[in-house]
Each structure stands twice: as structure tokens, then as C-alpha cells.
Design brief:
Elements: H1 2-17, E1 52-54, E2 57-61, E3 64-68, E4 70-73, E5 81-83, E6 86-89, E7 94-97, E8 100-102, E9 125-128, E10 131-135, E11 149-150, E12 167-168, H2 180-186, H3 195-206, H4 212-215, E13 223-224, H5 227-236, E14 253-254
Parallel strand pairs: 4-13, 6-12, 10-11
Antiparallel strand pairs: 1-4, 2-3, 5-8, 6-7, 7-14, 9-10
């Protein structure tokens, strides 16, 4: 068994080494376990105008599932929105569909990530010309600092607030399918995760406390205000383990209710990319105010946040 695990890690490492750092591709690994449920957490306050929320999710590396904390990030250009990645049952394995930037929010498995990502679309804000307007009903924004705000509570639906399932399809999964509109969004030009987002995944993998095998599915740091603050926190508390420091941008697939496979199969998904245009110009980070958006997974067709803790 020890030799098998060693061979598995070697193959994973070798495959990752062959991937270009800037490539927008998912590597799928057959491992034999399903992703844990989504943890409950409070969204940190938005650090400044122009930042967009990226919800946390379970990624997979050679050492198992690890949590990538939710974080506010800068979009690659004005006018684009983030479609979160999601795990989906593919008939014989769960496959992770990588997230991307695009003009619209596409299908993300019906997974209720909260804070505007309630399973369908995005209700946390919208672009108005060259500025992003935040829906304070579902995202945590200091109105004295950020003035491009509005409040639309119609995106909140309490019927799904307790659903923390992290995957689509299969036994126990969310039974959602892309609408015709979402299918059309999937054919639009997409932009890969930014260098900031990729670095965040690296740091999450380097932090041993993020591994489900360590935290039992309850990460200590489920969300962060910015990637810079999260990286500093990890470094200060010495969260690096023996497996830390090796970047794992791979996305995985897992066979449900099956023993771990002794082989690893790789596939790739390529998305059309567009050249970044005008970049969003967030303001400098401001002093953090007290969060007011509670509950990591506000339910609803479009939104989440401002839900009671569970």
C-alpha cells in the first residue's frame, strides 16, 4: 500500500510538472472518495471597490481533499464575473469543472456556495458601466467606504439554506442541469483564473490545516479578506507541512462508493480565452469593519448571505 501511494504521488507530480503554469486546463484524478460538505463560515468584509468574491471550495491533491478559502480578488478586467468551479458526477466518476471569468455567470452545478452564489446565477452584484455595484443584502460591504451599492433581498430564498452538498449528480448530489441560457453562457469566451487566484490555490495546498484528513471537513480558516492577508497568516503561524509548497492546480474526479484506484487517469478541458482588456482598479484596502453577512451558504435561486448560523 505504501508503495502504491508513493507511485501515485510520483505520477501526479510528474503530470503536473508537464502542465504550463498559465494553461487553463483541468487534470482529473480518479481517487475513490467524494468531496466533503461545504463548511459554514462568515464572509469577510470587502477590502475595497472593485473586488469580487470567490467562494471557497474543496480541491484535490495527491494528499487528498483540501479547502481553498473563499476570498475577495481583483477581476482580470472590467465587466467580467466569476463562475465557480464545481464537482459533477460523470457516470463513473466525479469530475471537477474548473471555474472561469466571463461576461455572464454560467452553470456551477446548482451548488449553494452562498454570498450571491445560491445555485443559479449570481445575486451579489452587477457591473454598471466601469464600476461594480454590490448587493448589500447578500455580500459584506462597508457602505461608508464603498458607495456603489444597492439592496435587493429578493435573491434570498431560505428553502435551501441548509443544503451544503458540494457536488452535482450521483447519489446524494444536487440534481440540477444547465438551463438553455446557461448552456449558451458556456460557449462564450472565458478567461482563466488570474495569477492571484492560482497563487491562492498554491498557498491553500501548502497549508496543512486545510486538508480534510487534518480538519475533518472543518477548516480553521474557511475564508479570508484578501490573498495577501491569507498568505501572511499562513506564514506567521507556520502552517506548512511536508507536502506543502507544491502547487496543485489539478482538478480531480472520484469514483463514488468505490475503493481507491491504483491508477490515475488524466483528462483536460480547454476554454477559449480572450485577451485581458481594461483592468478593474480596486481602491487601497481599508480598515476592516465588523462583518454583517452571516452564514456561509445563504440559500436561494440567486443569492446567499445574511443567513443564521447553523
Amino acid at each position: 500500500m505504501r508503495l502504491t501511494n508513493l507511485v501515485r504521488r510520483f505520477v501526479v507530480g510528474a503530470a503536473l510538472a508537464l502542465l504550463p503554469a498559465a494553461s487553463f486546463a483541468g487534470v482529473f484524478i480518479s481517487v475513490g472518495i467524494a468531496p466533503p460538505v461545504l463548511p459554514v463560515y462568515t464572509q469577510p468584509i470587502c477590502p475595497g471597490d472593485g473586488y469580487l468574491w470567490n467562494p471557497g471550495y474543496w480541491a484535490y491533491g495527491p494528499e487528498g481533499y483540501y479547502w481553498v478559502p473563499g476570498v475577495w480578488v481583483r477581476p482580470p478586467q472590467v465587466g467580467v464575473l466569476w463562475t465557480p468551479g464545481y464537482w459533477g458526477w460523470g457516470g463513473s466518476a466525479y469530475i471537477f469543472h474548473a471555474g472561469y471569468w466571463g461576461p455572464h455567470v454560467g452553470f456551477y452545478g446548482g451548488v449553494n456556495y452562498g454570498f450571491g452564489y445560491g445555485g443559479v446565477g449570481f445575486g451579489g452584484g452587477r457591473w454598471e458601466g466601469g464600476h461594480f455595484a454590490y448587493n448589500t443584502a447578500v455580500v459584506n460591504v462597508n457602505r461608508t467606504v464603498i458607495h456603489n451599492v444597492y439592496e435587493d433581498r429578493t435573491v434570498i430564498n431560505h428553502t435551501t439554506v441548509y443544503n451544503r452538498t458540494s457536488f452535482n449528480g450521483g447519489t446524494g448530489g444536487i440534481q440540477a442541469r444547465p438551463s438553455a441560457q446557461e448552456a449558451s453562457f458556456a460557449r462564450e469566451n472565458h478567461i482563466a483564473p488570474t495569477a492571484e487566484q492560482q497563487s491562492h490555490v498554491q498557498m491553500a495546498h501548502a497549508d496543512r490545516s486545510n486538508f480534510a484528513s487534518v480538519n475533518g471537513g472543518h477548516p480553521q480558516y474557511a475564508a479570508a479578506r484578501t490573498t495577501t492577508e491569507y498568505h501572511a497568516t499562513v506564514q506567521q503561524r507556520g502552517g506548512f507541512g511536508q507536502q506543502g509548497g507544491q502547487h496543485t492546480t489539478q482538478q480531480a474526479s472520484v469514483h463514488a462508493n468505490a475503493a481507491p484506484q491504483q491508477h490515475i487517469q488524466y483528462q483536460q478541458q480547454q476554454h477559449a480565452q480572450v485577451q485581458p482588456q481594461q483592468h478593474a482598479q480596486p481602491q487601497q484596502e481599508h480598515a476592516q469593519a465588523q462583518p454583517h453577512a452571516e452564514g456561509g451558504h445563504g440559500g436561494g435561486e440567486h443569492g446567499g448571505g445574511h443567513e443564521p448560523k447553523r
